[in-house]
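pipeline/complex-builder :: batch 7 item 3
reading input block
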Amino acid sequence: MPEHRNTFAGNPLDREAARRRDEEWVGTQLRDASAEFLPLRSLTFPMRQVDGGMRLAWSRLPVGADIDRHPALLLGTSNGAARFAINEAAAPGQFELSDDASFMDLRAAAPVLDGDDAGIAAQARAFLDWHERHQFCAVCGAPTEAVQGGISRKCRSCPAEHFPRTDPVVITVVIDTERDRCLLGRQASWPAGMFSALAGFIDHGESIEDAVRREVAEESGIDAVNVRYHSSQPWPFPSSLMIGCHADAGSADINYDEWEMDDVRWFTRDEIRDSLEQPAAQLGQPGLPEGALSLPGPMAIAHTLITAWADGTA
Amino acid sequence: MPEHRNTFAGNPLDREAARRRDEEWVGTQLRDASAEFLPLRSLTFPMRQVDGGMRLAWSRLPVGADIDRHPALLLGTSNGAARFAINEAAAPGQFELSDDASFMDLRAAAPVLDGDDAGIAAQARAFLDWHERHQFCAVCGAPTEAVQGGISRKCRSCPAEHFPRTDPVVITVVIDTERDRCLLGRQASWPAGMFSALAGFIDHGESIEDAVRREVAEESGIDAVNVRYHSSQPWPFPSSLMIGCHADAGSADINYDEWEMDDVRWFTRDEIRDSLEQPAAQLGQPGLPEGALSLPGPMAIAHTLITAWADGTA
């Protein structure tokens, strides 16, 4: 099966694992005239319209800017030029947006954002958010500081070094082959009619397959058997790695915890195909007929997994 | 392909995601006569020999014990009876080990530990270690406290809630089909002659496949193409999730960073098979002939991935 590239995958930057170990090299990149910066405002991104789609709007550092006190995070290089993300609030007035750019929410903009730029933005959002929320050492409570362009934070008081976290999540479409139907669920906070694949964080001491079986059992009461990996997706809200799977149903009777799920049902292939053919249904937009099934849009790996089953490639 | 159960996968406990939300239920379990405890000493485990292998040695709480002040972590239930892990140092003198039990290092004992018990120990080790190292809030620096039997830690000062982390790692055997050889590397700290699959942490904003390509390129200079998932493994040293893959080689010339790798080489199928047939070589034991290839033992997913290729199932 050829690799499926989900939205936010395929970031084209060179993360420079070797060269960034040299703090002096990072400092030189920061001051190089070719360096480009992505100033984030409350985790929204500067973007501009280009040819009907959106692109990230990078900034240059003004001559004489006092960058040393700014916690600029090195994303990597592109054709040898360094790319940094920075919290705009930490460098007030240093970065001027061009007239055609504005700050956009990544989740809202992703469906129309250039694919490579979506990958860079996913990296930047997870990276900056983690740094903002890890100013203190979890071991001893003292302040920490970023090193090597942000690859980790070192405690100023104890020997602890902290690395950005990535939280693996399993997301699964369970298939009842005999009755040609698949299992989807919904949470109470979702728009009416919206259903998706069952998902949850992988717990400590679990394999991917263990986690799929536990999450499916917890959310639906169904036995998931024959778990098979399909594809994966960075999901930077705030720092998940979505691990997409299909599994077969080892039982048929649905039984769920109403604290966790609002509804869980079997859907026939025709019901899924009908919904996938309505673009409005995939975006969870209002105006759907009463009772119509709405599915996640193409930016979500749930869409990939559901479509793969509907197309007979799961 | 049937699922491969790696060491530490397949923990049989019910993690009780729903019932543990009720603090009162957790407290009742703690005092129930059927509850069993695993007291860890500096992250080593009480074990006893049973029928030539090893089993975890569980303890009961003595009558009248003052458990309220102990941060006991609820692992889950087995046949309705609760199982807890606890740092022995936090409950001095409360748990008495039977005469036939002693504290063992999990990595050393895993090859002879019962498979279900290895899964429980992996959960306990990752869980307890995370709690020990997250006594303070990374957002504000104030003390935190465990809730719901340890499912998270809440800050006593700000609204932050912190969950145990699991760090996804990609580990890959790259295959050169045309010349029937596979790519392995070694680090300078390993025993002489020991080689293994290439591995590294998944970075923020990376898919599994992106991470495989980057890590293989960084550690060997080889282009990894056609990445395929094989199986996964919890690796609680301290909290990794190993994601095992095979990939094809898109290039042949090895080029590595000597800071990161001590040696990287292509090995023929005969070289790999010869090594796998020598049990001593798989355990990295001394006494191997000069220049002999040593591979990771069966408890490591690297062994699974290398063996799958050698057996023609990769």
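note: Chain A touches chain B through 65 residues (CB under 8 Å).
queue -> next item
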